[in-house]
Amino acid sequence: MPSYILLALHVLAAVIWVGGMFFAYVVLRPTAAAQLEPPVRLKLWVGVFSRFFPYVWAAVILLPVTGYIMVFDFYQGFENAPRFIHTMNGLGIVMILLYMHVFFAPYKRLKQAVASENWPEAGKKLNQIRMLVGTNTVLGLIVVIVAAAGRYL
To answer: Predicted confidence band at 19 (pLDDT cuts at 50, 70, 90)?
Structure first.
């Protein structure tokens, strides 16, 4: 696959994932909290996550695959890759692990709590997700800075 296609897929996956988290955390979350009662807000979040998470799964697959292919094409492996590539890789792995935890633990329990209308439990799970997504958003923004400026630092 040509390198420009790999790079385009890599960047698009990162933009969709990090941009989606930024929008959800900084724009949607405070607006929903200010305007919607807990049952409606919690149902909204289950719907938002059910539509957003398939894109995140695509990113979680595309980012390492395209990234590793590019590392081996451009640098013949990590041994020759500059530090900023190692930083992106390490932070990316942490982000993927955090996302997988969100998906398989609090999100699963959020859906169950909303389905059974257990609003206090659903609120606890949404708060867990909020904290983890906040962490992943910050990590994602750092990765974007490293990707854009790393070779100059």
So the answer is: very high
Length of the chain measured in residues: 153
Give dist(CA 60, CA 21) in Å, integer.
14
Amino acid at the residue 112:
Q
Secondary structure, 3-state, 27-46? HHHHHHHHHCCHHHHHHHHH
Alpha helices, H only, 2-153: 3-22, 29-35, 38-75, 83-104, 106-115, 119-149
- Smallest CA-to-CA distance from 53 within 104, 9, 90, 91 is with 104
Both structure tokens of 27: 């724009």
Q: What is the DSSP letter of 105?
A: T
The tens digit of pLDDT for each residue in 101-114 reads: 999 999 999 999 99
Residue 68 near residue 78 (C-beta atoms within 8 A):
no
**Which residues contact residue 128 at a Cβ distance below 8 angstroms, ignoring those fewer than 6 apart?**
106
Backbone angles phi, psi at 37, to 5 degrees: -70, 155
